[in-house]
Design the sequence.
C-alpha cells in the first residue's frame, strides 16, 4: 500500500512538467517543493524532538540572504552561495540550540520567536549590507557548467522544478536516515520523556542542538533555493506567515511522520491557489480556514497518520473476511 | 565500594530532605533503602543519579567523585535508575522503548547515520537482538509490538525495568519497583531482581514492601527525617528499636 502510494507520488512528481502546462501552476508546484523542504526541516524539531520553533522563517531568510549577498555583492558562484545557505543557518541553529540548553516548551518557542525578530530587524536596518526594505535584486540563476560542455542554465521553470524535486528527495532522505538510527530514537526519546532518556544515558541538550543544526541548515537550503528561484531577496523572507505556514503543513500533514510534511506542503500550497481559482477572494481565506479546521478536527494526528490508520483498518477487515 | 555517599545533605528552603547521610553499597549485593514516607529515600536516589544537586556532601562511584555530574553522564558510568512514578516512553512500542534504552550500546552518530548506512544496518541488527533478549528476560515477549501506554500497570513497571537493564547498569537503582503490584507480580519482580544480581549487577533498592525487602536484601539502610538511623543485615535492622519506633511511633513497644 505504502510502496504503491510512494511510487505513484514519485511518478506524478517526476512527470509533472509534462502535464502541467500552465506556468503559474508549475510555479505553484515549485513553491510546494520549497515548502516541502521547509516543512521537513521544521518536522525534525517539532515532530521528533517535540520542540516548536516559531522562528523557522529566520533560518529560511538567513539562507536566502547568505546566497544573495555572496552572489550579488561578491559575484561568487551560486553553488557556493547555496552551500553558504546551508552552513550559515546551521551555525545559527547551533547558537539557538546552545542558548536553549534547558529551555523547553513555551520557553523554547519564545527563544526562537525572539531570534527571528532580531534577524528580521537586522535585515531591515543594516542598509549597507542588505539594502534594507529595498532588498537585493539580481540574484543569479543556478547554472550547471561542466568543463568541456556548454553551460546549462536552470533559469526556466521546468528546469528549476527538477532542481527543487531533487532537493525535496534529498531532504526526505536525510530525515529518513536520521530517524531510522540511534540518533532518531534519541530525538524521539526527548519528545516522549526527557527525564527517562537522561536516565539511560541520552544527553537531551546534545540531541536538541543536533536537531536544531540539521533543521536550520535544511531550512536555510530551502531559503537558498527560494533566492535563486525568485532572483530577489527582501526582508519579506522573514515574515512570520512563512513560519505559520510551515507549522500548518507539518501539523496538518502529520508531525512525527516522514511523509506528513511533504503531503502537508503540497496540499497547503496548492489549496489556496485552487480556492483562488474556484471562488472570489472574499471566500478564499474563509474556505481555507474552514478546511484547515476540518482537517484538524477529523484528523487530529494529521492526514498521513489518518490514512495509515484507514489503510490498516481496511487490511484487517480484508484478512478477517 | 561501587557506591559511597558521604555526608549527603539536601535542603529545600528550610526543610532538610537529607541531613548528612553517609553509606556505602558493596559490589554484587542487593542493598535496600527503607524508611517512612518523606524520609528522603527518593531524594537520595536523585542525588546519586544526577537528577538533584546536593547542598553538601559527595557521591563516589568506584572511587571517583561524581557529585554534580549530569544524569546522562552518570548513566554512562553504569549507574542506572528507575522512577517511583511509572516512567516509560508512552507513545512507543515495547520494542522501541527497549531499543531507546540501548542508546549507550550504540555508536552511530549523525555522520554515520547519513553516510554509512551499512554500519547503521549492522548496528540496528545487533541492537534488535539485544532488545529481544532484554524483553524476553522480563517476560514481555508477547507484548513486543504493543504501545507502552496501552500496557497494564504491572507490565509498564516491567517495561521500565527492561529499559533500565537495556542501558547496561553495573549498579541498578530501583525506586519502589513493586509498589501497587499484586502479590504474584511482586513475586515476579523479586525473582527478576535475584536473577539480575546473579548476572553481576549490584542492586540498590527503595521499597516499602517489607516482605520483599527482607527476603532479597543482603543489607538494609533505614532513613528517617533525612537521617540514617540503622544499617545492617535484615534481621538486625528488624530488631532495631529505633527502626520500630520510626515505623510505629514512639508510643509503641518493640515486639519484634
Sequence:
Amino acid at each position: 500500500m505504502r510502496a504503491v502510494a510512494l511510487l505513484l507520488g514519485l511518478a506524478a512528481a517526476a512527470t509533472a512538467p509534462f502535464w502541467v502546462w500552465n506556468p503559474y501552476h508549475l510555479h505553484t508546484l515549485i513553491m510546494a517543493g520549497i515548502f516541502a523542504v521547509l516543512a521537513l526541516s521544521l518536522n525534525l524539531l517539532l515532530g521528533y524532538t517535540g520542540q516548536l520553533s516559531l522562528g523557522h522563517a529566520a533560518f529560511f531568510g538567513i539562507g536566502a540572504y547568505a546566497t544573495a549577498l555572496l552572489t550579488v555583492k561578491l559575484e561568487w558562484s551560486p553553488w557556493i552561495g547555496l552551500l553558504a545557505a546551508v552552513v550559515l543557518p546551521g551555525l545559527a541553529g547551533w547558537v539557538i540550540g546552545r542558548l536553549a540548553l534547558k529551555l523547553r516548551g513555551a520557553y523554547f518557542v519564545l527563544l526562537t520567536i525572539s531570534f527571528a525578530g532580531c534577524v528580521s530587524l537586522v535585515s531591515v536596518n543594516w542598509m549597507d549590507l542588505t539594502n534594507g526594505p529595498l532588498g537585493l535584486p539580481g540574484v543569479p540563476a543556478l547554472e550547471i557548467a561542466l568543463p568541456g560542455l556548454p553551460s546549462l542554465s536552470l533559469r526556466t521553470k521546468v528546469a528549476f522544478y527538477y532542481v527543487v524535486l531533487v532537493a525535496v528527495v534529498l531532504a526526505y532522505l536525510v530525515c529518513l536516515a536520521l530517524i531510522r538510527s540511534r540518533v532518531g530514537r534519541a530525538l524521539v526519546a526527548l519528545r516522549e520523556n526527557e527525564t527517562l532518556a537522561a536516565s539511560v544515558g541520552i544527553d537531551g541538550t546534545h540531541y536538541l542542538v543536533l536537531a536544531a543544526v540539521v533543521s536550520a541548515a535544511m531550512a536555510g537550503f530551502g531559503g537558498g533555493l527560494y533566492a535563486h528561484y525568485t532572483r530577489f531577496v527582501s526582508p519579506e523572507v522573514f515574515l512570520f506567515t512563512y513560519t505559520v505556514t510551515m507549522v500548518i503543513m507539518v501539523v496538518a500533514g502529520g508531525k512525527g511522520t516522514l511523509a506528513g510534511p511533504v503531503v502537508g506542503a503540497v496540499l497547503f500550497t496548492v489549496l489556496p491557489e485552487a480556492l483562488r481559482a474556484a471562488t472570489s477572494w472574499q471566500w478564499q481565506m474563509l474556505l481555507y480556514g474552514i478546511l484547515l479546521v476540518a482537517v484538524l478536527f477529523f484528523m487530529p494526528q494529521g492526514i498521513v497518520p489518518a490514512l495509515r490508520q484507514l489503510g490498516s483498518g481496511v487490511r484487517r477487515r480484508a484478512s478477517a473476511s | 565500594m561501587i557506591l559511597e555517599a558521604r555526608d549527603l545533605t539536601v535542603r529545600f528552603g528550610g526543610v532538610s530532605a537529607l541531613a548528612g547521610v553517609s553509606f556505602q553499597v558493596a559490589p554484587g549485593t542487593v542493598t535496600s533503602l527503607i524508611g517512612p514516607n518523606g524520609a528522603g529515600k527518593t531524594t537520595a536516589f536523585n542525588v546519586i543519579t544526577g537528577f538533584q544537586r546536593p547542598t553538601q556532601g559527595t557521591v563516589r562511584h568506584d572511587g571517583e567523585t561524581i557529585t554534580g555530574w549530569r544524569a546522562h553522564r552518570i548513566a554512562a558510568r553504569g549507574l542506572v535508575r528507575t522512577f517511583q512514578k511509572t516512567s516509560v516512553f508512552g507513545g512507543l512500542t515495547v520494542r522501541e522503548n527497549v531499543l531507546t534504552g540501548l542508546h549507550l550500546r550504540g555508536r552511530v552518530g549523525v555522520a554515520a547515520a547519513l553516510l554509512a548506512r551499512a554500519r547503521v544496518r549492522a548496528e540496528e541488527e545487533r541492537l534488535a537482538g539485544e532488545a529481544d533478549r532484554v524483553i524476553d528476560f522480563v517476560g514481555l515477549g508477547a507484548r513486543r509490538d504493543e504501545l507502552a501506554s496501552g500496557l497494564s500497570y504491572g507490565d509498564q513497571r516491567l517495561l521500565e525495568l527492561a529499559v533500565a537493564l537495556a542501558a547496561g547498569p553495573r549498579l541498578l537503582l530501583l525506586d519502589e519497583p513493586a509498589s501497587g503490584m499484586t502479590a504474584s507480580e511482586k513475586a515476579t519482580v523479586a525473582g527478576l531482581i535475584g536473577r539480575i544480581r546473579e548476572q553481576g549487577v549490584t542492586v540498590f533498592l527503595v521499597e516499602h514492601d517489607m516482605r520483599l525487602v527482607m527476603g532479597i536484601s543482603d543489607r538494609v539502610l533505614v532513613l528517617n527525617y533525612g537521617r540514617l538511623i540503622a544499617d545492617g543485615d535484615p534481621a538486625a535492622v528488624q530488631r532495631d528499636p529505633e527502626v520500630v519506633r520510626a515505623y510505629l511511633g514512639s508510643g509503641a513497644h518493640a515486639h519484634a
Observations:
- Strands of chain A lie at 136-137, 143-144, 152-153, 232-233.
- The radius of gyration of chain A is 20 Å.
- The mean pLDDT of chain A is 91.
- DSSP finds 14 helices and four strands in chain A.
